[in-house]
Amino acid sequence: MRLFLSSYRFGAHRDRFLELVGNGRRALVVANACDSWPASARASAVTSDVVPLQKLGLQVDELDLRQFVGATTALRERLETTDVLWVRGGNTFVLRAQFARCGADVVVPEMLNNDSFVYAGYSAGACVMTPSLHGLQVEDPVDEVLPTCGIEPIWTGLGLVDHAIVPHWDSPELGQSGAKVIAELCRLGIPYWTLRDDQAVVVDGSSQEVR
Fold first, then answer.
1. Most buried by CB count within 10 Å: which residue of 69, 74, 89, 158?
2. Per residue in 80-115, is it b (16+ CB within 10 Å) or e — as a string?
């Protein structure tokens, strides 16, 4: 399993990301954490992640999970064509719901356990891989989920790492909300990592490190 879970894009570890990718050159960008945004803002978000990956020499397409609702087999077939699944930030609860609607919450862990591709996620894209999303409602409105996705919020992550993630720990915009997230995690007894915007959790086989 290869995971690159960061607070913001590559953080200070672009080279480590490239090491994980190796000779792979195909990438799919998932921007479904932005599905509650206006269409123009969502489109800009896609572009803002496609371009940095292209500058690294990757061949990049968008994977819109909304196109695979009820089509898990087709989703698996699409994922078999990529070397990197890049999942950007936005609303973690919206992203988690979209994973559930298309079966990505089952297919992605299975394929990662078979080392089919690198999973690289930042902010919401990182948080969705943790055991629990509790506390993140301080930053990400859960009331966006039902009108955007048609289902109720899901409070569990995919559990591929054993700690919750509190991203943007060094960001002035986070303000006091980061402490509120941590207070909720402590109340529930959930271990967590705080990640500055230059940091990442890297899982490479049996190795796991916070950089």
1. 89
2. eebbbbbbbbbbbbbbbbbbbbbbbbebbbebbeee
Distance CA 86, CA 6 (A): 11
Say if pTM beats, i.e. exceeds, 0.70.
yes
The fold for domain 2-210 equals Rossmann fold (3.40.50)
Domain definitions of the chain by residue range: 2-210
- Token pair in block for residue 2: 């290869």
Residue 116: CA count within 13 A, CB half-sphere: 16
Cβ-based neighbour number of residue 16 at 10 Å? 18
pLDDT in tens, 62-86: 999 999 999 999 999 999 999 999 9
Task: Return d(Cα 121, Cα 200) in angstroms, integer.
Answer: 10
Give the C-alpha separation, 170 to 175, whole Å: 9
41 backbone dihedrals φ, ψ, rounded to 5°: -70, -40
Backbone angles phi, psi at 119, to 5 degrees: -100, 120
- In terms of Cβ atoms closer than 10 Å to its own Cβ (0-12, 13-18, 19+), residue 198 is middle
